[in-house]
Amino acid sequence: MNKNAFRQLSYGVYVVSTWDNGRATGCTANSAMQITSEPATIAISINHDNYTNKCIQDTGKFAISILGEHSDPGIIGIFGFKSGKDHNKFDETESVIRGYLPVVADACAYVVCDVIDRMETTTHTVFLGQVVDADVLKQDDPMTYAYYHKVIKGKSPKNAPTYIAEEQPCAETAAGAKYVCGICGYIYDGDTPFEELPDDFVCPVCKQPKSVFVKQ
């Protein structure tokens, strides 16, 4: 089975958020879809190992922040490569409260849902939510997973449905030397093929320093 066929499916890039005993928390996700229009119903898929999964089950509510192509890519790193159990992720990015839930301010739109059903798979919970609030925050093209992978040059967190072990670097960077972030897989190839990373370089996706990059 060639799992790369799954990449032909369409995915977005989202932050799914909720409350953890009054503290805002969340994680990145790329599986969200509208099930019905009346009543408006949304389904999301969250890995069992994500702390956000437990928090959604405890609160019975979740919000989806839809990231745009001009959203800060560091948001993906904050919510995708750190655990909400150990980090206050919303302390690292601006947020607003919409529908009584925390939403990423730099998103292009948001949807707030009450959980009305759920389905368990081996690795993920599919939450079905009835929409109670939604709005556009700014004009931007929604970020797709393909855009994240090819333009931002990031990889999926291991808990993401789209994660494929030992993902290969993007074809656009195949020639010449490049530097790969050992945390999130972001690829930096500089202005010239053999340019050294600046000493103060910080990964734009996961915000890690130059020291975590490996030259290839």
Descriptive report:
- The protein is mainly beta.
- The chain folds into two domains: 11-145, Electron Transport, Fmn-binding Protein, Chain A (Pnp Oxidase, Chain A); 168-216, Single Sheet (Rubrerythrin, domain 2).
- The chain has helices at 51-59, 74-80, 145-152, and strands at 14-20, 23-29, 32-37, 40-47, 61-66, 95-98, 101-104, 109-120, 124-136, 179-181, 187-188, 213-215.
- The strands form three sheets. Strands 2-1-5-8-9-4-3 form a seven-stranded antiparallel sheet.
- The protein is globular.
SSE blueprint:
Blueprint: E1 14-20, E2 23-29, E3 32-37, E4 40-47, H1 51-59, E5 61-66, H2 74-80, E6 95-98, E7 101-104, E8 109-120, E9 124-136, H3 145-152, E10 179-181, E11 187-188, E12 213-215
Antiparallel strand pairs: 1-2, 1-5, 3-4, 4-9, 5-8, 6-7, 8-9, 10-11, 10-12
| Broad CATH class of the largest domain | Mainly Beta
According to CATH, the homologous superfamily of the largest domain is Electron Transport, Fmn-binding Protein, Chain A
Instruction: Report the CATH topology name of the largest domain.
Output: Pnp Oxidase, Chain A
Overall number of structural domains: 2
The number of helical segments is 3
CATH architecture of the largest domain: Roll
Index terms:
216 residues; 11% helix; 7-stranded antiparallel beta sheet; Rubrerythrin, domain 2; Pnp Oxidase, Chain A; 35% strand; mainly beta
